[in-house]
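pls ignore typos typing on phone
beta-D-glucopyranose + seq
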Amino acid sequence: MKDIASLVSQMTLEEKAALVTGASAWTTTPVERLGIPELLMSDGPHGVRRVPDVHALGAPSLPATCFQTAALLASTWDRELLYAMGQALAEEAIALGVGVLLGPGVNMKRTPLCGRNFEYFSEDPFLAGELAASLVQGVQSKGVGTSLKHYAANNQETQRMRIDAVVDERALREIYLPAFERVVKQARPWTVMCAYNKLNGTYCSEHPQLLTQILKEEWGFEGLVVSDWGAVHDRVKALQAGLDLEMPGPRPHRTQAVIDAVKSGKLDEAVLDEAVRRVLQIVFRAAETPKGGSFDVAGHHALARRVAAEGMVLLKNNGILPLIHPQRIAVIGRAAKEPHFQGGGSSHINPTQVDSPFDELQARAGDAVLTYCPGYPADDSFDQALIDEAVTAAQAAEVALLYIALPSYKESEGYDRADLDLTRQQVALIQAVSAVQPRCVVILHNGSAVVMSEWIEGVAAVLEAWMMGQAGGGAIADILYGVVNPSGKLAETFPVRLVDTPAHLNFPGENGQVRYGEGLYIGYRYYDAKQVAPLFPFGHGLSYTTFAYSNVRVSASTFRDVDGVTLSVDVTNTGRRAGKEVVQVYVRDRRCSLQRPPKELKGFAKVELQPGETKTVTIPLDFRAFAFWHPGHKQWVTEDGEFDLLIGASSADIRAQATVTLQSTLQLPSLLNRESTVREWLEDPRGRAVFEPFFQQMMAQMRAAMGGGEEEGGIGMDMTGFIMETPLVSILGFQEAMLPAPAEAIVADLLQKVHG
Ligand code: BGC
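k done
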C-alpha cells in the first residue's frame, strides 16, 4: 500500500485542487509525476454501464449483464443471493476496467409516485440496509468499490436538483438514514454519493452535519464522499462540509476556486489535504485490482435468471397457477415480445443478451399453441382494435396470459409518476380480456406499486415481475409452470388508492420545499397506524406450498438492551412442493415515552424447505431493534418495558409471537428545564423526588384558594388536568402572591436540585 501521507505532502496546491474534481465524466485526475493513476467509475447499480469514451456522459455503453433493479432485488429478501450478484457485478467491472460501481441506492420509498423507486430497495430501512450491505460486500469482496447513494433524503425526482426536503430529526434518524448507516457500518462501502437535493435548507453536497458529523465522525466512514453528478454548487463550501470528490469534470474554474480559497486563507489547506488523502486512498485501492480479461457471460445470465425468479412476487392466485399444461394459450401484451427488464436513466445497461418472455414460455409449454397479440400500442395512444384482437384470441384459448409493462413515459429516473395507474388502454385490455376469459393471469412490469382496483377482481392471478433484468423472461415461465416455486415478498406496500398513500398530502411540495409531514409513518408504519387496509401489505407474497410456524422461543424473557435477545421459531413446509419462506420479525413497543409506529421490521430470514421438512430459524435482535432516536437526548434510547416480537409471513399475517422484557442500561440525564410541565416533573424520576412534596403543598393551597376542594373551581374545568399540562413556572406564576419567592426562582432551585 502506498504511503498516502507522504504523497500528499509532495503534491503542489494545484495538483491537490485538481485531484478533488474529476478529469472527465467518469475519471479522476491522474498525477503522472507522482505515479498517481486515474480512477474510473461507472453506473451502476444493477449492471456495469461502462461508457467507452470517458468524456461522454450518456453514450451507449459496452455490453454487460443487466441484472434486476433494486425493487426486485429487495423482494428476494435473500442476503446470500445479493452477495453472489455483487460478486458477478464486480467480475464484470474488472473485465470492463471499472474501479468503482456507482450504486446501490438505498433511499426510502416514501411514496410509490417516486419515478426512481425502481432503483431503490424498500419503504423499510432495515430491509434496505441489510440487502444493500450484502450487495456491497459481494462487489467489494473482489476488489471493486461501490458508491452508496443518494445520501440523503432523495425521495423524489420532482425538482430533484434543488428541492429542499424538510425532515424532522426523528424521521431522519429512524427512517431516512438507517439504511445508509447500516451499509456504512456493516459493509464499509469505498464511497458514498451525496444527493442532489437540499436537506433542511442546505444542499446535501454542502451539509457538514450529514457529510462530516454523522457520516464520517459518528458512523466512522473511512472512504470518500463523491458528489452526485453535478450536485456541487460551491466547491469550497462543499469541501469544508466534507465532500471529497466532485464529479463530473473537468471544471477548471472549480479547481481555481479551491486554489484561490487556500491562498486567501478562506479554506484551511488541511481540509483540502484530508479530501486528497481520502481520494488517493480509494484511487490506490482500486489500482490494486488488476483490470481486463473477460467475464462469464452465460454464467451471469443464468444467475440473473435465478435472481429474477426469487424476486418476482405472486400477488394473487385463485389456484390457476402453476399451469397444468394448457394446450391453447393466448399471450397478450407487448411486453411478452419486447421485455421490460430495466428502467430509464443513468442505470440503463446495454445487455449481453435478452430472453424473450414469449420464446421462454414456448420452451416450457412444449407443443401447446401460443397465440400472440400486442394488446396495447407502444406509445400513449388508445387502440380499440388491439383490444378486440386480444379478446378474440383469449376466447379461443384455455388460458390468457397478459404481459403488461408500465411505459417509461409514466415511470423513470428524472421525473415522478402522475398517478399509480396502468395506462388507460392496459386497464381496458385487462377488463375486456378477463370478461371473456376468467382464466386470466396478469404479469406486471413496473418499478413500484400500481393500483389494481379497476380490474383485479376479474383476473385469476397476478404476478409482479418488476423490472426483471435480461434473463427475466425465462423466470416468468419457470414460475408460471411451477418449475420454480415463487418466494418473493413485497418490500413495499401496494395501496388500494393513491389517496391512501402516506405522503399524499405532502408530495411533491411547493415553493422549492417538500415537507415530510408524515414523519416516521411511511409504508406499513403508516397503514398500520392509520388502520388503512392496503391492496397488498408489505411482506406479502404467495407460494405454491404452505408453511406452518411453531415453537417460538426466546433466549431470555428478560434481557439487557446491550445483550439483545435471540428468537427462534420452527417453520414447516406443510404442502406438497419444495419452497422457500421469508420469516419476518417485527418488534412492537408496548409503551414508550414518545410516539412509535405500531410495529417495525427488525429481523428476517429466508429458508428453503422440502415437503414435510421443518427447520429452526434463529433471528438475533440487538440494542437497535428496540431503540428509538430521542431528539431531546440526541441519541438512540431504550426504555424499560415489554416488547412484543411478532413473527409473520407478511406484515399483515402474524403467525406467532412472544413477549420479552427489556432492561435499559442507559443512564440518561434528566431533560427537565424551565418550561417543563407539571406532568413532566412528576414523570421524571429525579424530578419527582424533589418536586413531589412541593407539589402536594401547592395543590392543597390551590384547593383552599378555590374554596374548599372543588375540583372544577368556578370555571367548569378539571383543574388537575389543566395543571398537569401547564409549565410549572406558569402555574406558580398564577399564585405568586402566596409564594415565598418568585416562580422563576423556585423552579431554578428545583432544577438545581435535579441537575446538580
Ligand atoms: C444519478 C446518479 C448516477 C450519476 C452518474 C446522476 O444523475 O443521480 O445515480 O450515478 O448521475 O450517471
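The first helix runs from residue 4 to 10. The chain has a mean pLDDT of 96. more later
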